Amino acid sequence: MSTAPQPPAPEHLDVLIVGAGISGIGAARYLKTELPSKRFAILEAREASGGTWDLFRYPGIRSDSDLHTFGYEFKPWRDEQSIADAPRILSYLRETATENGLDPHIRYHHKVHAVSWSTGEGRWTVDVERTDTGERITLTAGWVFCAGGYYRYDEGFTPSFPGRDRFTGPIVHPQDWPEDLDYAGKRVVVIGSGATAVTLVPAMAGTAAHVTMLQRTPTYILPVPRKDLIGNALKKYLGPERGYALTRRKNIAQQRFVWSWCQRHPKAARRLIRWINVRQLPEGFAVDEHFNPPYDPWDQRLCAVPDGDLFRAIRDGDASVVTDRIAGFTEKGVLLESGRELEADVVVTATGLNVQAFGGVQVTVDGREVRLADTLAYKGMMLSGVPNLAYAIGYTNSSWTLKIGLLCEHFCRLLAHMDRHAYDICRPEPADPDMPTRPFLDFGAGYIRRAVDSLPRQGDRMPWLTSMDYRDDVKLLRGSGVSDPELHFSRAAAPAEVTA
C-alpha cells in the first residue's frame, strides 16, 4: 500500500524582517552583526530595495532631515550634501546592504499578507505571495520584525475634488509620478503645502512656465543649508568616521534644541520664523497670508527647503503661492471658493499619504485577529498581548533613523537575553489594564489624524509611552536592560510563564 508523500515543512527563520527600506536594512545589519547565528530573511514586496527612496520618482525628491542623523550610526555619510537627493540616499542604502552581506538575505517580490501566532508552537506562520508569479508560500518564524514604514505603497491620498473629470490635462499624484510627464513650458498647479509640495515647486519651476503652490493652510517653512559646512570640515580634518560621529552629535543636539525651544516658546518661535520668511521673500509679499499657520511650530513637522530654493523660485517669479479652498475643477484648471480660477496645464495633487500600519498585514494570535487600536505600544517597538512581534517607527520631530537604530539595538539585546535563558516567547502586558491611554502619535499632520483610530495607542507612563525624544530613548533603549515586570517570557513547551 502506497502512502502519499508528505509536503515539505515550511522554511523556518529565526527572524523575518518585512520591508527592505531604510529600517529593514538597518535591522538586518544589526542582526547580522550582533547575533550572527540567527537565520533571517528580508521580504520585500517590490522588485527593488530602498523603500521610499526607490518608490518615489517625482522631481527634486530629497530628504528633509540631514543625512548625518538620517543615516545610520554605524555607516558614515561621506557625501558633501547634508540634505541629500533620493539617488544619493538610495546609493547609500544599497551600499550598506552590500557591505554587510545583506543582499543574499533579501527576497524580492515577496508580499506578506498575514502572520498567525501559535503559543503552543512558539512561532509565527507567515502567508506570503510571490508578486511576480502569484504563487502563495508559507514560512514560519520565531520573530517578525515589521519594517515597512507607515504608509501604503500602492496609492497616495487624494481628496475627492468636484468636477475632477472635467479637467483636460493630466492630474498626477507624486507617489505615482509618470516617467514621461512633460511639463516643460507649461502652467503647473501643485495642490498641497507639505514636504512634497515644497520640494516639487522649486524643482519644477526651472522647467515649467510657472508653478503655483495652492494650499488650504500654510505650513512653517525654513531655509536650511544643503551642505553642512562644519560637518564637511570635521570630516575633512578628523577623518570620515570621527568627523561623522561629531557632526551627528552636533546635529542631534541642534534638532533637539530647536524642537524643545519651539515647544517652550511657541510665540517667539513663530516670530522668528516669520522674520526669516520676510527676509527670504520679495518686498511686500503677503507673508501672513501664505506663511503664517494657525497652529504652533512643531504641532506639525516643519518643512525644510535647502538653500531656500522655494523662496528663490518665488523671488525669481517662477513660482507663486495661493492660499484658498478648492471649489472644484474646470476644463482649464482649478476653481477656488473665492471665485478665482487658476488655469493650469498640469495639476499635481501633493495631498499626502494613506497611513497603513505594518503594511496592512493581518495579525492573528492563537486564532484571534488582533485589532491594532485595542493594543498598547510597548517601548515604541512591541504591542501588548502580541508575542514576538517588533516594529520600526521613527521620530516625527527629528530624523526617522535616529530611533530606528536604538530600536534595532534593543531588539538584538532582547533576543540575546531570550537565548541566554532559553526562552521562546516574549509578550508585553500592562500591569494595569485600565491605564489611561492616548493616541499612538501626538501629531497634528492630516495623514496621522485620518488614521489615528486604526493605530495602536500609548499609555500614560513608561514603558507604554511612545517617546519622541532621542535623549530619553537612549536611556530607555540603550542604557537600561531588557528585563521589565511588564514583559513576560516563557518557553513554548512549558505552560508556566516566567517574568524576568
From TrEMBL:
Enzyme class of the recorded protein, top EC level: oxidoreductase
Family to which the UniProt record says this protein belongs: Belongs to the FAD-binding monooxygenase family.
Gene3D superfamilies the UniProt entry points to: FAD/NAD(P)-binding domain
A GO MF term: oxidoreductase activity
Enzyme Commission numbers on file: 1.14.13.-
InterPro entries: FAD-binding_MO (IPR051820), FAD/NAD-bd_sf (IPR036188), Flavin_mOase-like (IPR020946)
Keyword terms: FAD, Flavoprotein, Monooxygenase, Oxidoreductase
Cofactor field: FAD
Pfam family, one: FMO-like
UniProt source species: Streptomyces sp. 900105245
Protein name: NAD(P)/FAD-dependent oxidoreductase
